[in-house]
Amino acid sequence: MTSPLVSIRGLEKRFDLSGGLLEQITFEKGRFRRRQEAVHAINGVDLDVQRGEALCVVGESGCGKSTVARTVMGLISPSAGEIHYDGQRIDNLEGKAALPYRRRMQMIFQNPYASLNPRMTIQQTLEEPIRFHFPTWSAAEVRDKVHEVMQSVGIDPDWGSRFGHEFSGGQRQRIAIARALAVDPEFIVADEPISALDVSIQAQVLNLLMDAQESRSLTYLFITHDLAVVEHFGTRVAVMYLGRVCELADTRTLFATPRHPYTQALLSAIPKLEDDRPNHIRLQGEVPTPVNLPSGCVFHGRCPYANERCRREVPKLIATDGGTRVACHAVEEGRL
Amino acid sequence: MALLEVKDLDVRFAVRGGDLKALRRISFSLDKGERLGLVGESGAGKSVAAFSILNLIAKPGYIAGGQILFEGRDLAAMSERELRRIRGNRIAMIFQDPMMTLNPVLTIGTQMVEAIQAHRKISRRQAREIALDRLRKVQIPSPEKRLDQYPHELSGGMRQRVIIAIALLLDPDIIIADEPTTALDVTIQAEIMALLLELCERENVALMLITHDLGVVSQVTQRMLVMYSGRIIEQGPTREIINDAQHPYTQGLINALPQMGEPGGAIVPDPRLHAVAEERALGVPLPPPLPLRQRAVPAVDAGLCPFRQRGRGLLRSEQPD
């Protein structure tokens, strides 16, 4: 087996909530106490992204999926853990050393209304990354490259002098994809790239991403909350809950035989066209706050199969016979 | 007679360079206890249709023509004062974002009591009892405590439950829900939709559900309207439309949905999604007579487009049974 393109090891990210030193200090029962609080966005995530695959990370708001994406891209630095790209550790690189990786890894954001600079024309938007990463190219070469990427995403190159606001949501997202493709990356992190778009447009953008993957042999880390989309798009799926991966499997296996109780509930909650009534698995309560993480399995408070061990001990991702990796004591013990 | 009957409703927005026609003479009706779904993409006019029923269209929008008959009385012709007696009382609304609906500086209890006292002459204590009862109906844990909490102390799903409780306060005949679960996660969405459906059935409340999610429409509604650029292009029983859509746009919309494979993995979905051809850029004027022609070129070429065959939308309601 070849080595993975991106490998995430023991990744943790906490966002400090407690503010400055003075805000942390309280006076209680005659003594000064210092109190620190943090949002535990990611709590020990290990993931490998293989070359040429599309690894989807799914989960509900606050599960840490976007934080994983941003940490991998180096937009935020991890609190603990390592990120390796093509065998090289990249989370501690700075300045010039990180530059080659910035070209090889590109990101597509959720909201194309916010990710395109409103004061730049499309031509300028697309030229900027090329000029930055290939400073030796001539103006004609840059123009040709812009022409090519615009064509490849189905935007008429003659529209280069227009501004972002003159395009519809789907077109803008295609321009954002063109910008990512302009520097010939190998690895693309797409953070909810279709969530802001209408259904009919979502299909176009997804197909475009799939075509680009084929023609440019790209590797994707695809972040989404929409499981239905994943079934079309992903090679493998990682389901996240409260900053941990609870199930990791091939797309087909995951949809055919979801093992983790949370994955089962998530799949059942998607409204399907053939349903006459909602028929989801009812979960108790709501997602707990990531400020005070539950002990043991983070899902135990809502899980119908939770027992004493689940409340005490954090489950590890364990491979099952079906090839799925599941972090659940009930699955491990054969109770589920 | 239908509980609500909208006839030739024409809503326009006065913008520079003329009127933007948001609704082009649409007609539909809603029976007592019936659940109706309005679907369409952004800009199709589904929210405008819902908002105009209670005359909640802000300037520069205005109702340019048509009637909105509620129990035979025309809401479009009513004075603001008369309309206020119906709004929130007989016809309640649920909006997409609960944080925008709830007043952040008042407790849940204060807001609920205020809504009741605006329509009924009863004491604070009685109003509080009603509020408590409705919070129980929407299955909020420890409802007494919630009455004294502020909106920011509740989670998104809980807030939307409060909104539903407020909608139910005065036993309305119709609830208009505009994308009530769009801002929520799937598991919470499933809970809220199930709750809304259950309450509407039990209390015999008519529901007008505006959504872009065909799956939700399929689960909750009995009849549906498909809207496109201010027109209703297809309407009929939900199940029939989903199983056998007639209009090429509706077909495109259904085909564009990611197909979920069967549990057990027997059917593997086609990896490529079916896109609806060409999208309409915002601000680009609509092609006047046949707004769908550009996006339904194959159908037009094959002579399949009902617009071409019959000169206007093929509506199920027009077909003989």
UniProtKB/TrEMBL annotation, chain A:
Q: Name one Pfam family in it.
A: oligo_HPY
CDD domains hit by this protein:
ABC_NikE_OppD_transporters (cd03257)
User: InterPro entries, from UniProt?
Assistant: AAA+_ATPase, ABC_transp_ATP-bind, ABC_transporter-like_ATP-bd, ABC_transporter-like_CS, Oligopep_ABC_C, P-loop_NTPase
Q: What is its EC number?
A: 7.4.2.9
Q: Please give the biological process terms from Gene Ontology that the record holds.
A: peptide transport; transmembrane transport
- Report whether Transmembrane shows up as a keyword of the record: no
Q: Which residues form the ABC transporter domain?
A: 25-267
Which reaction(s) does the protein catalyse, per the Swiss-Prot or TrEMBL entry?
a dipeptide(out) + ATP + H2O = a dipeptide(in) + ADP + phosphate + H(+)
Q: Which SUPFAM superfamilies match?
A: P-loop containing nucleoside triphosphate hydrolases
Tell me if Ion transport is a UniProt keyword of this record: no
The enzyme's first-digit EC class, named in words, is: translocase
Family (UniProt)? Belongs to the ABC transporter superfamily.
Q: What does this protein do, in the record's words?
A: Part of the ABC transporter DppABCDF involved in the uptake of various di/tripeptides. Is also involved in the uptake of phaseolotoxin, a toxic tripeptide inhibiting the enzyme ornithine carbamoyltransferase. Responsible for energy coupling to the transport system.
The record describes its quaternary structure and partners as: The complex is composed of two ATP-binding proteins (DppD and DppF), two transmembrane proteins (DppB and DppC) and a solute-binding protein (DppA1-A5). Five orthologous SBPs (DppA1-A5) are present in P.aeruginosa, which increases the substrate specificity of the DppBCDF transporter.
Protein name, as recorded: ABC-type dipeptide transporter
